[in-house]
Specification:
Length: 265
């Protein structure tokens, strides 16, 4: 598999999954179940997962696939793998807030190197090109032919007036305490992996996450942010956030533009 082969496939699958998700989102009602970890899952999560998984396995049968909705995949490990969160921000979906995303990423040797983040309710799509740089696609989002692509780049942050984005559903006192260490011009809340993309486009400078996440929640957004010149580090020691960890669980982390002077936890 080459990057040139990968990118059109994950882009198309994200768009197709977005259509499936929106058809359920726009229905009068949809089913919600509770998983063993007490997190919600909807028929949209499951339908999008089935579509993406089938597409990736057909296109790249020799590459390990890890996906949130298939527990059997969570015990598999490898240096190179595709990792999927078919619907990140399920709570935003259930509450019809629109801040949910489709996420597909490639991880190589512990680093997310390519990925796509698609927010179907917002009509925003971000992904890495084959060369590793990141773009936002605008226009009709045709499944076969990409529209206009705008290169995205992190902002040159003003440490005296930072723009901060934090979780909408998981914003707690620990998060507020950490944000309070900075000189903040504006602070906003957003759901799902969109927060990585807001840093990638320069709409925010800093995204601290003091709470539980899994690798499928973050890999695609991480790849997009890295392709835009941003960084993601562990909250405790500011070392790079790596992937392929035991159980695919993340420590707390900070996503940021490199011009931000990070504060200690």
């Amino acid at each position: 598999m080459t990057y040139e082969e990968l990118i059109p496939v994950i882009r198309r699958l994200a768009l197709e999954a977005g259509d499936v998700i929106m058809s359920i989102y726009n229905a009068d009602d949809f089913g919600v179940k509770v998983k063993s970890d007490s997190s919600p899952v909807t028929e949209a999560d499951e339908a999008a997962d089935a579509l993406i998984s089938a597409g990736l396995r057909a296109a790249f049968p020799d590459i390990l696939l890890v996906t949130e909705e298939q527990a059997a995949s969570h015990s598999q490990t490898g240096d190179t793998f595709l990792i999927v969160d078919p619907l990140d921000g399920t709570k935003e979906f259930i509450n019809r807030r629109g801040d949910f995303t489709v996420n597909i990423a490639l991880v190589e040797n512990g680093t997310p190197t390519r990925g796509v983040v698609y927010a179907p309710a917002k009509g925003r799509m971000f992904y890495t090109l084959a060369d590793g740089s990141s773009v936002e696609e605008t226009g009709g989002l045709d499944k076969e032919t990409p529209g206009d692509l705008s290169p995205i780049r992190v902002a040159e942050a003003d440490n005296a007036a930072l723009l901060v984005v934090a979780s909408k559903s998981h914003r707690d006192q620990a998060t507020e305490d950490y944000i309070g260490k900075y000189a903040v011009k504006d602070s906003k809340s957003a759901g799902s992996s969109l927060k990585f993309c807001l840093v990638a486009t320069g709409e925010a400078d800093l995204y601290p996450r003091v709470g539980r996440t899994m690798e499928w929640d973050t890999a695609a957004g991480h790849a997009v942010l890295a392709g835009a010149g941003g960084k993601v580090v562990r909250f405790d020691n500011h070392q790079p956030l790596t992937y392929g960890k035991d159980g695919y669980a993340n420590p707390f982390f900070i996503a940021y533009a490199p011009s931000v002077t990070l504060k200690e936890a």
